[in-house]
């Protein structure tokens, strides 16, 4: 039996979260540039100026410079390799004659490479790790100074001081980036929660309206079942008992429906909100009044509806057509005040669907700010939910000339309403 192996994914490169492409490639470019400069210079300086054996000088140059490319993704690991190589190089310099005019224990190229790595470590690691790195550099410098004080000329102090400053700067940049990413993530979560809350509010509002329709149907069933024995003569006793059972079940269902409506309206059961919820639900016949009120509000609206108005529509479709028109006009008022708008309500020739179309042009004053700029798409969410509930289709989007179009097709088949009530 073979054992599955799990591979650890590579860490993200430094500045890998930046939106700018050149910033994401910058660490690679810097690493390659300094490797190209430091690798040959380190080998020549260690061999010619410090007197190390050429082979040892080349080996140390490779170990002290090539890990810079590794530092793009794993700066701490690269620092460990370079630090050990620098310590080994400083120990090797103890075997050569004293060079009073040469920096020691860290040659200039080692100082440059170490500073780059300490900055990279600051960009990736936590404060405790940064303090450990700085203390190790300080301890190694002090130990070599104590081993060979005659070689010391104080250049190691620059590495300790500048390295500490660069790690502090890198750590500050890392913490700032982490805070910004956390804030962006929280904003994304908040936006998702806001959208979800808006959707639930819309569904609750639609449910309140649709349950009124269901309650009406249940009342009709109760009345018909109760009156059937009086309207229909010569009914057998079994049929009379069946109608009585239907009426009793319908009354119980209506009672439970009223309790459910009470729960849905618990937040606004008092005051104007509760009174408006108990009012009869509007339909297509109320769209002309809605357009008239919108025109009085200052929005030029042209209405096209069949004459006579369509009758016998399923109540859910009737209500949805009115609400979609209402929300589309409200969006025009908020986002394109004064824009010429056309509202069209038509029934398919075969009476299989009701088409609601609301199209607005651009606002006459393009420089004028809209009445609302921080909307959450509340109206569009409601339209989509209403169309989905009745099994219709919705097409919304901007027009080439800058306007906006809302087109909803609501099916008029009898199965639509029945399926909705049983869903």
Automatic annotation (TrEMBL):
Keyword terms: ATP-binding, Coiled coil, Kinase, Membrane, Nucleotide-binding, Phosphoprotein, Transferase, Transmembrane, Transmembrane helix, Two-component regulatory system
Coiled coil region boundaries: 182-209
Source species of the chain: Streptomyces netropsis
Keyword match Cytoplasm: no
Domain Signal transduction histidine kinase subgroup 3 dimerisation and phosphoacceptor: 202-267
Keyword Transport: no
Residue intervals of the Histidine kinase/HSP90-like ATPase domain: 320-413
Regions that span the bilayer: 26-46, 52-72, 79-98, 104-123, 130-148, 154-173
Enzyme class: transferase
Name the UniProt record assigns to this protein: histidine kinase
InterPro entries (alphabetical): HATPase_C_sf, HATPase_dom, Sensor_HK_TwoCompSys, Sig_transdc_His_kin_sub3_dim/P
Record field: catalytic activity: ATP + protein L-histidine = ADP + protein N-phospho-L-histidine
Molecular function per GO: ATP binding; phosphorelay sensor kinase activity; protein dimerization activity
């Amino acid at each position: 039996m073979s054992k599955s192996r799990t591979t650890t994914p590579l860490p993200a490169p430094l500045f890998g979260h930046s939106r700018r492409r050149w910033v994401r490639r910058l660490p690679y470019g810097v690493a390659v540039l300094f490797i190209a400069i430091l690798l040959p210079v380190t080998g020549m300086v260690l061999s010619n100026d410090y007197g190390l054996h050429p082979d040892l000088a080349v080996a140390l140059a490779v170990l002290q410079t090539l890990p810079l490319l590794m530092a793009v993704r794993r700066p701490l690991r690269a620092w460990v390799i370079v630090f050990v190589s620098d310590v080994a190089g400083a120990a090797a310099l103890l075997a050569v004659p004293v060079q009073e005019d040469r920096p020691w224990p860290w040659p200039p190229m080692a100082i440059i490479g170490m500073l780059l790595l300490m900055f990279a470590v600051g960009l990736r690691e936590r404060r405790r790790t940064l303090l450990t790195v700085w203390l190790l550099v300080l301890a190694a410098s002090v130990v070599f100074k104590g081993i060979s004080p005659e070689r010391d000329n104080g250049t190691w102090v620059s590495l300790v001081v500048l390295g500490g400053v660069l790690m502090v700067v890198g750590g500050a940049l890392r913490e700032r980036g982490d805070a910004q990413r956390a804030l962006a993530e929280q904003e994304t979560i908040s936006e998702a929660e806001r959208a979800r809350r808006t959707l639930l509010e819309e569904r609750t509002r639609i449910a309140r309206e649709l349950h009124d329709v269901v309650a009406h149907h249940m009342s009709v069933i109760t009345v018909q079942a109760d009156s059937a024995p009086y309207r229909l003569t010569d009914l057998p006793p079994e049929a009379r008992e069946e109608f009585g059972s239907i009426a009793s079940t319908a009354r119980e269902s209506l009672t439970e429906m009223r309790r459910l409506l009470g729960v849905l309206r618990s937040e606004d059961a008092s005051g104007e909100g509760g009174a408006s919820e108990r009012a009869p639900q509007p339909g297509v016949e109320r769209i002309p009044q809605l357009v008239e009120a919108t025109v009085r509000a200052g929005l030029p609206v042209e209405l096209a509806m069949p004459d006579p108005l369509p009758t016998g529509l399923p109540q859910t479709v009737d209500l949805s057509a009115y609400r979609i028109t209402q929300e589309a006009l409200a969006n025009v008022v908020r986002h394109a005040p004064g824009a010429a708008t056309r509202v069209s309500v038509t029934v398919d020739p075969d009476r299989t669907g009701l088409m609601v179309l609301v199209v607005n042009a651009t606002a006459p004053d393009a420089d004028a700010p809209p009445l609302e700029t921080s909307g959450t798409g509340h109206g569009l969410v409601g339209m989509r939910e209403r169309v989905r509930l009745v099994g219709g289709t919705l097409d919304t989007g901007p027009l080439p000339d800058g306007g906006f179009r809302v087109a909803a097709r609501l099916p008029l088949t009898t199965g639509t309403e029945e399926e909705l009530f049983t869903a």
